[in-house]
Write a structure and sequence with these properties.
The protein is mainly alpha-helical. The protein contains 5 helices and no strands. The chain has one domain: Up-down Bundle (Four Helix Bundle (Hemerythrin (Met), subunit A)), CATH 1.20.120.
Length: 127
Amino acid sequence: MSEFGADHAQISVEFLRRSREYLANGSLLQSSEKGWGAAAHAAKLFAGARDGLIYERHEHLDDVITEMGIETNSYRQIRQWVNKANLLHQNFYKDDLDANTVAVYLDDVANFVNLTRQLTGLPPVEL
């Protein structure tokens, strides 16, 4: 894995850790945005490990999800996890999710982060 990929692996885990801290402190907006960031960096990790797959803009996320779905035969599950990450991103602007919902969505992001780690040869982390 390139140094660039290792950065995304580290950032995704760190953002998810921070998102849980923000949640515990009641800062749902910051928790939501860090959760989204964790998913985005995990997607960049996966894309960087695959020749010809890019994720430079939000619109490239569908390509990453499709490729992950092909490799794992779990497209529907991956799509659901990423949709929850998108809802966290929206919550940063709308502030309409409660703490329990944010916590559940962060669990889905953690599943996505660990799947990208698995698919790139990294061990899962406790998130």
